[in-house]
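User: Show me sequence and structure for the first protein, then do the same for the second.

Assistant: Starting with the first protein.
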Amino acid sequence: MNRKLSELASIAEIVSGVAVVITLVFLVLGIRENTEIVRASAYAGSMDSLNDFTMNVVTDDDLRPVWLAYVNGNTEIFDADDRAQLQLLLIVLFRNYEKAYFSQRYGLLGTAEWGRFERQICLQVDRAHIVNESTLGFLDIVLTDEFAAYVRSRCQRADE
């Protein structure tokens, strides 16, 4: 009787060990799936922010001409109000970029997704410098020190 109980206990230990391994495998698979969902959500959130920005500019009769002139490099016609509007638009845009930057930094955006944002950041830095060297003066005021330093280091202009 004692021997049978000992054999049953050994079998129970083996079965419980296998059950633990199976449980761990399911947990790992669940965590991977959840990580993929979080990454997709982070990217979607960043893209939604940029899409909202674009739609707000496109549908606003006062902002649209300022933005189009900026994008097309026709800013010589800007008055003080136009420059102020442009700077506010760029603040909003760069805050969206900052959100994407930290998503990437925390591992929530992949290399390809982040590359898309990075190219746009440097494009906007180049455009802003064409308007006026001080157009991006807000970087140190409204953005984190880390992101502002990243933008400066990553988007160095050839003439600087």
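Switching to the second protein now.
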Amino acid sequence: MNERKDVSHFLEQFNDLTPEEKTDLIKKIMPQFCHTVMENKDLRDKIMQEMMPFCMEMMNKNDFPMKEMMVKMMG
């Protein structure tokens, strides 16, 4: 039987993946992640409050223009 591992175990395994494997996993898990977040308003609000400052900081550090990202996301 497959034992369920904790989140830190999952993150350790993720960090051990190659960049290509990480990209593939992200492409597969993001739709499920978004669905889970968007169906629960409390979770959505909490995640947005916690993640947006982190995301904005990363975008600023990497010279990642917000307008360009939004255009790509919206098609």
